[in-house]
Every structure is written in C-alpha cells, then in structure tokens.
Amino acid sequence: MTRPSKLSDETVAERLATLPGWTHHDGKLVREFRFKDFSAAFAFMTRAAMRAEQLDHHPDWFNVYNRVKVQLSTHDAAGVTDFDFLLAESMNSFAAADGPQ
Amino acid sequence: MTRPSKLSDETVAERLATLPGWTHHDGKLVREFRFKDFSAAFAFMTRAAMRAEQLDHHPDWFNVYNRVKVQLSTHDAAGVTDFDFLLAESMNSFAAADGPQ
Amino acid sequence: MTRPSKLSDETVAERLATLPGWTHHDGKLVREFRFKDFSAAFAFMTRAAMRAEQLDHHPDWFNVYNRVKVQLSTHDAAGVTDFDFLLAESMNSFAAADGPQ
Amino acid sequence: MTRPSKLSDETVAERLATLPGWTHHDGKLVREFRFKDFSAAFAFMTRAAMRAEQLDHHPDWFNVYNRVKVQLSTHDAAGVTDFDFLLAESMNSFAAADGPQ
User: Fold this and answer.
1) Of A29, B17, C21, D90, whose CB is crowded by the most CB atoms within 10 A?
2) Closest chain C residue by Cα to residue A43
3) D-chain residues near B42 (CB < 8 A)
4) CA A61, A66, A71 angle in degrees (round to 5)?
5) Do B99 and A97 touch (CB under 8 A)?
6) Contacts of B51 in chain A (CB under 8 A)
7) Which CATH class is domain C14-98?
8) What pTM, to 2 d.p., does this model score?
9) C39 and B61: CB-CB below 8 Å?
10) Per residue in C11-39, pLDDT tens?
11) To the nearest whole angstrom, how far is the Cα of D32 from the nearest Cα of chain A?
12) What is the Cα–Cα distance from A86 to A78, expressed in whole angstroms?
C-alpha cells in the first residue's frame, strides 16, 4: 500500500461527520474512550494494537484505568490521512463491541 | 487465599445450572466460545489472561481463529474447585461483552 | 498478497533446517515453546497474535501456563506454505526476545 | 491486602536507588521505556496490564510506537506507596525480558 497524502481540513471535517466521537484538533484526530473498567479498556487496546500492526500505522495513546485517549496523525504526511481514518473507524468498531460507557 | 478443595460431582452439577455454556467432563469444566473473528477472540483471551493472573489460576485453552476451547480444573485438588467457577464466570462475562456469536 | 501454494515435503524439510525447534508433522509445522511463567507465555502470544493479524494467517495453538504448543498450516492449500514459515520465523524471534527456557 | 500509606520523600529516594531508570517527580514515580518496535512495546504493556490487575493498581501510561512513558502514584494516598514500587519493579523485570533498548 502506498502511503496516502495529507487530507485537507475540509475533507477531514466531511469525513468526521460520519465518525462519532472524534474531533480534528491540532492536525490530529482525537477521541477519548471510556470503558467499564481497566480490563475492558485494555482488551480494546489489544484489538487496536493488532489493527495498528496490520496497517503499520500506530496511535499516540494515553491510558489511565478505564479511559483511553487517542491521537492519530500521519507523521510522514504532517497531518491526517486515510490511514488515520482507517484506524479510527476500527477503534470505534472495537469500542462498540467492548462496551464503552 | 487458601486453595479450595475439590467440589463433589453433585455440587458441580448444581452450580453449572447457573453457568450457561459449560459442561462437566472428565473432571474438568469445559466450554467452547465462538467470536466474530480472531481479533474478538484474542481480546477475550487477553481479558481472561488478566483475570487468570489475578486469581493465580490458569486455563488450559486452545484457539483457532474465532474459536476458544477452554478446560478448567485445579491440579492440586485433582478436580473442579471454586477457582474454576470464578474463572468460568469471568470468562462468560467477558464473552458477553466481547460479543460471542 | 496472493495466497502461496503448498510446498513439497522436500522444500519443507530444507527450510526447517534453518528454523530451530520446528518439525513437520501431519501436514503441519509444529513447535512447543516453554517460557518462565504464564505472563511471559501470554506476552509471546500477544506478539504472535499481532503478527498473525498482519499476515492474515492464524495459528492453531494450545496454552497451559508457561507452555504454548503451535500448529501451522494453510487450510486453502491443504498443507504448509510460505505463510506458515513467515509466522513460524516471527514466533521464533518473539520467543527469543521473551526468554523461553 | 490493606492499602499502604504514602511514603516520605526520603524513603522514596532511598528505594529509587535500587530501581534503575525511575525518578520521583511531582509526587509520582516516572520512567520512559524504549523497545525495539511497537510489537515489543505492546508485549511489555500486556505483561504490565496483567500485573496491574493482579495488584489492583494501575498505571498512567502513554505509548507511541516503541516508547512507553509511565507514571505511578496511589490516588487514595495522594502520593507514592509500596504499590507503586511493586508495579515499577515488575515493569523493570518485564522490560529486561522484552529487551528494551
């Protein structure tokens, strides 16, 4: 897969309209997930980690107990690309399965 | 926590009545879980692994793609004990959250 | 990536010569790994799980405490393919890092 | 286990002398781990997650690719306690096994 190029702010805004929970901030896609407890949060992180390896595209993320704060951007493109949306969509799907609050 | 003692076949049968999906076979509690895909199956295994470490009581388990076959028994007691029920109950709760089929 | 085709027994034998610990048995690559404890074993499984998702090629594996018994084959090809060797090589590399006994 | 009480700055300093890599900063134990790649970093996190569940004591941690930045403190005690040292010692042991750079 060739590395995708940076998406314009307009395109990012358009695509965020169908991606619940995420915002565009400081050149990154940002979302905070909340789960029932640490166990559910880390199960989510494990699924996201497998997806990240699959895409060879990795999140910046912070976890404390049941919360996972994620920031996605594509370093090589200095902004948000298709890769970030692919990972964000997968994360939303995993979080739905793992039962975020 | 002191190691619990082996439960009688009658007690195991009684307690299985409220533990969906598990059977008592050959001195072990046995269940096969099915998930949507490998990612969901391994997220379940990760939660079960954390719980196993917490209990210091570990499963015999076999995974292929979306299936996880589990056997629980307590070696020291040569049979099924409270520990096996604790782990089995947690696994059912994780599987419900992770959406088995 | 197109799915690779089944390797001949001769090719499998040749390639196993440089893959410590694995044998060819019943149309599968087989190895049992032993680790210090459950924690090390499951860390290995987590790395292998990420690699499996990356390759879209998954192991049959059985774990009890510090042991992980793995069987690799390619269902579509009814035998051993390049995919099995890719996963086996990664597993050896992960096991070396995680300190098998 | 009863919750331990806050350790004095002197005690923290003394114990840090035998805990390579960690510093005491702003009422927390802090360390940044670096691994070979994301796979090794996440394997470390998985082991640490199992240990955290075992202790019922969880880290604040941030991961980007091969780096894991950890902050440990005990909320109830408003400072550093024995629990933080237990988790920090385990993390050092896991990182040694998983081969940090």
Assistant:
1) A29
2) C46
3) none
4) 20
5) yes
6) 39
7) alpha beta
8) 0.94
9) no
10) 999 999 999 999 999 999 999 999 999 99
11) 13
12) 17
CA pair distance A24, A3, nearest whole angstrom: 20
Nearest CA in chain D to B48: D50
The whole-angstrom distance between A91's CA and the closest CA on chain B is 12
Topology given in CATH for the domain delimited by B29-98: Gyrase A; domain 2 (3.30.1360)
Residues of chain D found within 8 Å of residue C40, distances taken between Cβ atoms: 47, 97
The whole-angstrom separation of Cα A60 and Cα D38 is 11
Separation between Cα atoms, residue C43 and residue C59, nearest integer Å:
16
Q: Is the pLDDT at D79 greater than 50, yes or no?
A: yes
Chain C positions in Cβ-Cβ contact with residue B37 (cut-off 8 Å): none
C-alpha span between C96 and C8 (Å, rounded): 28
Q: Which residues pair with D98 in a beta bridge?
A: none
- DSSP 8-state symbol, D66: T
Closest residue in chain B to residue D1, using alpha carbons only: B1
Q: Quick: pLDDT tens for D46-60.
A: 999 999 999 999 999
Which residues of chain D have a CB within 8 Å of the CB of C94?
A: 39, 43
Q: What is the Cα–Cα distance from C42 to C63, expressed in whole angstroms?
A: 9
- Cβ–Cβ below 8 Å for B42 and A50: yes
| CATH code of domain A9-98 | 3.30.1360.20
Structure confidence at residue D1 (pLDDT): 54
Domain spans, chain B = 29-98
Judge contact between D98 and D43, C-beta under 8 A: yes
Q: Which CATH superfamily is domain D10-98 in?
A: Transcriptional coactivator/pterin dehydratase (3.30.1360.20)
